[in-house]
Design a protein that fits this description.
The chain contains eight helices and 17 strands. It is of the alpha+beta class and 352 residues long.
């Protein structure tokens, strides 16, 4: 990058801005005035110019025969002064400045990259399948060519860390490896938990709990990880956001007007309708009493994925989603209480 061009330094996250040196123009005019009074003889003037890194002393030699050539020289010197003008470094993040000799670094106030801990809830996206494991994007980015070059944070979900269909407990075989895409395929969203943090920072995930698994029929919102704090329960329910006129319609279609929110510590927030208790009662009535709980939950998720969402429930989900976006725009901490306050305020104001 030349001195006369401003822009981002590749790999540094720093922007260089060129600042026009107005004082240099005034010094040139004063010097030319003095030279003209001396009869147009050649003159040498030393001037001090302040820059972004301190004060620099440069010698400028100007030769003039008459006033016309002096004007031409002034026109030719103007872009050179702009090229030699001081530069100002602008960091791409807000934080505290640390300086070691000539090295200047900015420590951000809030980290923009998620660093996991054991037990964290993750809302991620499958970006690769192979080698008896799934690659999970912790930034919820779609599986594109640019996202698979290692520039984004990824976690590893081994085949031994997922529940087999029906909750069967057995050793994984080569047939399970061939059928991995029947469980999760590229582009699927899922909730999982951090099982292990390796020395190099890679995360090993698992979905062995019945609460975790594939996500369907909902909305994903991505926020900076610093806005989502660790709490005792990251599965929360916001109740009573639908209008009373639509309660009868929601009951007929199997909805109760409640919205579930999954707060992922990696910045992924999943919003969906609450699964009605009537669905679970109907499934338990049709199956054997000794049926495993995993089989019941699997049927509930299948019905949730295949059942349409009513218009009033879509409005409630969109309201919660917009509430999270409002909190993100003002850089406010995202908690169940703050989401509910913003959502209910929008209901009171009649915002749709």
């Amino acid at each position: 990058m030349s001195e006369s061009e401003g822009g981002f330094l590749r790999g540094h996250g720093t922007y260089i801005e060129l600042v026009p040196d107005d004082s240099a123009d005034h010094n040139d005019d004063d010097m030319m005035g003095d030279t003209k009074q001396q009869g147009g003889m050649a003159g040498t003037s030393k001037k001090k110019r302040s820059s972004g890194w301190g004060t620099e002393t440069k010698s400028t030699v100007m030769q003039m025969d008459d006033g016309n050539e002096g004007d031409k020289q002034d026109e030719n010197d103007e872009p050179k002064d702009l090229q030699r003008g001081p530069q100002r470094l602008i960091a791409s993040v807000a934080g505290t400045v640390e300086r070691v000799n000539k090295l200047i670094s900015v420590i951000p106030l809030s980290p923009s990259i998620y660093t996991g801990q054991v037990g964290d809830l993750i809302v991620g996206r499958i970006v690769g399948v192979g080698g008896s494991r799934w690659k999970v994007s912790l930034t919820c980015s779609p599986p594109t060519a640019s996202a698979s070059n290692g520039s984004m944070k990824e976690g590893q979900l081994p085949l031994s860390g997922v529940n087999l269909p029906g909750g069967v407990q057995r050793i994984r075989t080569s047939e399970d490896v061939l059928a991995m895409r029947s469980l999760f395929r590229e582009g699927d969203l899922l909730t999982c938990e951090v099982q292990q943090v390796q020395k190099d920072g890679n995360l090993i995930l698992h979905t062995r709990s019945l609460r975790y698994g594939k996500l369907d029929n909902g909305v994903l919102v991505t926020v900076p990880p610093s806005l989502v704090g660790r709490r005792k329960n990251h599965f929360v329910t916001i109740k009573g956001l639908t209008s009373q006129s639509n309660d009868a319609m929601d009951t007929e279609e199997g909805g109760e007007g409640d919205v579930d929110v999954y707060l992922g510590l990696n910045g992924g927030i999943w919003i969906q309708r609450t699964i009605p208790s009537e669905w679970e009662n109907a499934i338990r009535a049709d199956q054997d009493e000794r049926a495993p709980l995993a089989e019941t939950l699997q049927k509930l998720r299948h019905r949730h994925a295949t059942t349409r969402v009513s218009p009033s429930m879509r409005e409630s989900i969109a309201r919660v989603r917009n509430s999270v976006e409002c909190l993100r725009l003002i850089h406010c901490q995202i908690t169940p209480d703050s989401i509910e306050i913003v959502a209910r305020a929008s209901v009171d104001q009649g915002i749709r």
